[in-house]
Amino acid sequence: MKSKYWLTILIVFCNLLLSAQNGDNELHIFIADIIEQYASEASETIDVNTFYDHLMAYAQNPINLNKTDKNELSKLFFLADYQVENILEYQYLHGDLETIYELRLIPGIEKIDILRMLPFVTVTPKSKYKTINFKKLLKYSKNEFYLSNIMGLEQKSGYSKQLDSPYLGSPFSGNFRYRFNAKNRIMAGCTLAKDAGEMLWNRDHQGVDFVSIYSQLNDVGPFKKLIVGDFQAGFGQGLVLNTGFSLGKSSYVLNVSNRTTGITKYSSTSESNFFRGIASTVSVGPFDISVFYSNRNIDADTLNGSFQSIYKSGYHRTISEIDKIQTVNQQAFGMDFTCKLPYLQLGFTSVYTVLDHKLQPQSSLYNMHYFQGNSQLNAGVHYRAYWHKINMFGEIATTDQLNIATLNGFSFSPTSFISFIILNRYYGLSYDTFYANAFCQSSKVNDESGTYLGWEIHPFAKWTLKSYVDTYKFQWPKYDISSPSQGEDFLFQTDYSHDKSTSMYWRLRYVSKMKNQVSEDAALPTVMTQRRVSLRYCFQTMYANLNLKTVLEANAVRFENQLPTYGAIAYQDIGYKISKPALAFNLRVQIFDATDYNNRCYAYEQDILYAFSIPMFYGVGSRYYVNLKYDYSHHLSIWLKIAQTCFADGRTSSGSGYETISGNRDTDVKLMIKWIL
Amino acid sequence: MINNKKHTIKINVLFCAFIIFTMSSNSQTINIINSSTSVAHTGTSDIGEWTTLNNPAALAYVKTFQIGLLYDNRFGMSQLATKAIQIAYPSKGFNCATSISHYGYSLYNELNCGLILARNFGDKFAIGIQSNYYATYFSNLNRYLGTLIVQFGVNTQISPNLSMAFHAFNPMQLDIKTDNSQKYVISLFSFGSNYSFTPQCSWRAQIDKQLHFPYRIATAIDYRVVEPLKIKVGAYYSQFFVPCLGLALYQHGFVLHLNSEVHPFLGITNCFALKYNFNNTSLTTKSINEE
User: Fold this and answer.
1) pLDDT tens profile B195-247
2) Which of A507, A44, A517, A414 is nearest to A246 (CA)?
3) What does DSSP assign to residue A493?
4) All domains of chain A, ordered by start, with CATH?
């Protein structure tokens, strides 16, 4: 059986080798590269669906650089604020761009930026930009259907019938999405999702666990946007409201001011962080007025008219998880009023939330300042100004209890080859809101003060140096930190782009933070400083339809008065595409060696469409995956991913709780079918 | 007489078991993976020499039909020797090769048959894959049991002087299981780089990680003193420091490699390899680099 398996792989490989053909690289390589720049340093999985949706939408309907605005360009997350301003200023001063390569004349736009922008922008004279009527819109509309299935091959202990509370459903997980898009003017869709272990259909539960529906109209009548169904909202720097993707610390060191996108449809499978109701934005002269109303039930563990926390994982596999389904009603009324002038943007955001149960967090030292109650009013003023190459931005927000949070910063690009940004934030001890999502070190916009300084230099052609330093303080204990604490975060990266197809970077990161350490002879944990240094080297090259990527990363972690521990991860990616048959594959072979949990490593993985994985690795072992994409026709595409992790540290099981797998292997199979009408 | 013979066999078996155990603890180059013709086992990034069971991407740089024999004698013991024969055939689309190697002696031995394919993509990079049928003799069962093992490698030319390579042997950690026992097959991952100071002189560095064992760091310098002679000096460290020395002789299409290394406890390991390149009587590393 094994022999046949490997023989098949060998034959496929030979066919691929023989069928080498020239062609363009795929869009997803660009998007994956951009996402990885954010994700590779993330310590937890981030929901990048919105991010991906925006980029894919612009890939299908590229931004016309001669008819764009700051809001639209800001959705190209890889552009820094000053680059967006420079593009708009150039266009204002010199008129329409004749060709896309005119971007090279704009100060601060490097070759690598243009390469990243190419799939998402176009240059069309304004005169040729015709208004499209409704009939034509429908004619050019697209209906897309996506069906994906994910399955683990090894049985998890939660599916064993011998346990008291095993998972009630099957190990199969999957989702179905329908998308309708008419030139980004009319959009509608629905998402159905079932997680592994959830019931699909029986006496107590009918149908899939999560259903989400949306419809969005853009530029219709007086409405700039009108959404009915599920939506996200984000304004300013996200201190009051940002349920979407938030920019944090990454190797895009200048991109830390949030790119909130106002109201926008929600199409992710994540079962939290969205609104359900109606939302609209109306443009009146320089003013954008957005209002929304949301009414949805959220998951929580209720008891006697109160609940301790909102349950956000979205898993409803066991009886105790099912008991939490939609037990609390949450209503939200929100508005934003923004005035957009050529060099100044000023706005006011407010949101009022009402719950039918009282939120009363479990009494602990770290959460004693968290919000308690049935309702909360939250409001803030945000601004963004551009003056003589200085881009200023910020927001100040308060709750009805007058707890303050503020974030202010500016970026400055004195010459085309040097840019820097400074960001200062102060989030009050009791500032705890439902929808805040802004630049911060901890997982919550609460009790934090700090300063971030980032800079980027292009000293020579092909070379980029970038770095950031972030220092922060928490004045109250946090989860897993039993005392007030502080920390530093430092990154230095050198990028070298040899040509369009070959690039590499070296990244050094130093993190110092305080953390509880439990020792055997102490009754209480001791707060100690943990220092982590990691060094990463990445090399990428493309040749015709083939692309290679090599990553080597090592880290050392040391607690005070203890010996350091070491971890390493290395992988090799090979991507290949042939045009007949239209098949693309991506192969990774990876090794990891991080015996201590503190040395754990993360590696971004290419996945099936709309799935992003940044798995965490600790222990010793190897991993490999094969990702295949087959375009049967313009209408039908199929993705398949097979991934396996093999541990070599003598463990007889992996995972924990009901997710425990016996043996040293963990295999996932993912399949997706996309059908376009 | 019979008792004496039995006694000798017993001592040999015990000594071999000790050596295998010690090698497993101290070295990356155990069992079936024979030494490469690159000194200090730095063959991952050495595009000038392809050796079976080392980086298959190096096969992509073979320009002529080639046949080779290899004898890797560890610590002066014939029981711990690997014998291999390899044949490489370059073609327009891709290069292919086959190899057979044998390790061990009558009571414990391993057999490997390999089929290798490699392709050079515009000299910018090369990819190779080797499919091995690996079999071990189980004396308690009195028969061979085997499995298919895949290894693959990549070699990338970063600049005219610098190349980088990756090689993985058995990345899926496949092993051989019987009803009563399990034979682990090593999983080896190597990253290496090669820098050519001049066409005659190159420097290689390599890091290997064999799962279950410590890292191995190796380095080597090759210097082509005169057209028919190359001197190779290197060393590697994995718990012990092992110095290595070798030379290669080139004459009328024949290439003879003689490599030696000295383990501080286990003694000297010698590797002899003889290759013949058809249709090219003066194939040299220099000419490969120039091409």
Assistant:
1) 999 999 999 999 999 888 889 999 999 999 998 999 999 999 988 999 999 99
2) A44
3) E
4) 63-128 (1.10.150)
Nearest chain B alpha carbon to A16: B119
Q: What is the DSSP string of A280-334?
A: EEEEETTEEEEEEEEEEEE-EEEETTEEEEE--S----SHHHHTTTT-EEEEEEE
Backbone phi and psi for residue B90, each to the nearest 5 degrees, phi listed first: -85, 140
Q: What residue segments make up the domains of chain B, in order of their start?
A: 2-290
- Residues B38 and B232: beta-carbon distance below 8 Å: yes
- Could you say which residues of chain A have pLDDT below 50? 1-25, 43, 129
DSSP string, chain B: -HHHHHHHHHHHHHHHHHHHHHHHHH-S--TTSPPPSSGGG-GGG-TT---TTS-GGGGGG--S-EEEEEEEE-TT-GGGEEEEEEEEE--SS-EEEEEEEEEE-SSSEEEEEEEEEEEEETTTEEEEEEEEEEEEEETTTTEEEEEEEEEEEEEEESSSSEEEEEEEESTT---EE-SS-EE----EEEEEEEEEEETTEEEEEEEEEETTS-EEEEEEEEEEEETTEEEEEEEEEESEEEEEEEEEEEETTEEEEEEEEEETTTEEEEEEEEEEETT-TT--HHHHHH-
The C-alpha angle with vertex A34 and arms to A30 and A37, in degrees rounded to 5, equals 140
The percent of residues in chain B predicted with pLDDT above 90, rounded, is 51
- Cis omega before residue A125 (within 30°)? no
DSSP H or E segment with residue A412: strand A404-415
Query: What's the start-to-end Cα distance of chain B, in Å?
Result: 62
Q: Does B284 have pLDDT greater than 60?
A: no
Residue A290: closest CA among A238, A368, A345, A233: A233
Q: Do A589 and B187 touch (CB under 8 A)?
A: no
Cβ of B150 under 8 Å from any chain A Cβ? yes
A422 or B265: which leads in pLDDT:
A422
CATH superfamily of B2-290: Outer membrane protein transport protein (OMPP1/FadL/TodX) (2.40.160.60)
Question: Which one-letter DSSP state was computed for residue A438?
Answer: -
User: Which residues in chain B are contacts of A502 at CB distance < 8 A?
Assistant: 158
Interface test with A, best of B45, B59, B150, B177 (most A CBs within 10 A): B150
Name the more confident of A110 and B16: A110
**In chain B, which among 161-200 make CB contacts under 8 A with chain A?**
164, 166, 168, 171-174, 187, 189, 191
- The pLDDT tens digits for B81-139 are 889 999 999 998 889 999 999 988 888 888 999 999 999 888 788 999 999 999 988 87
pLDDT at B291 over 60: no
Scan for tokens 């392809």, then name that residue: B50
Most B CBs within 10 A among A6, A550, A553, A625, hence the mutation to make, goes to A6
Residue A70: burial class (beta carbons within 10 Å; 0-12, 13-18, 19+) = middle
pLDDT of the residue at A79: 84
At B28 the pLDDT is: 39
Q: Establish if A1 touches chain B: CB-CB under 8 angstroms.
A: no
**Per-residue exposure over B207-239, b if at least 16 CB sit within 10 Å of its own CB, e if not:** bbbbbebbebebbbbbebeeeeebebbbbbebe
State how far the Cα of B102 lies from the Cα of B104, in Å rounded to an integer.
7
Q: Residue B88 has which token pair? A: 């490489």
Nearest-angstrom CA–CA distance, A417 and B230:
48
Q: Tell if the pTM clears 0.90, that is, is over it.
A: no
Residue of A67, A88, A63 lying closest to A386 (CA atoms):
A88
Query: In this structure, what token pair is assigned to residue A511?
Result: 């993190």
φ, ψ (nearest 5 deg) of residue B186: -65, 150
The token duo for A582 is: 């239209």
ipTM: 0.80
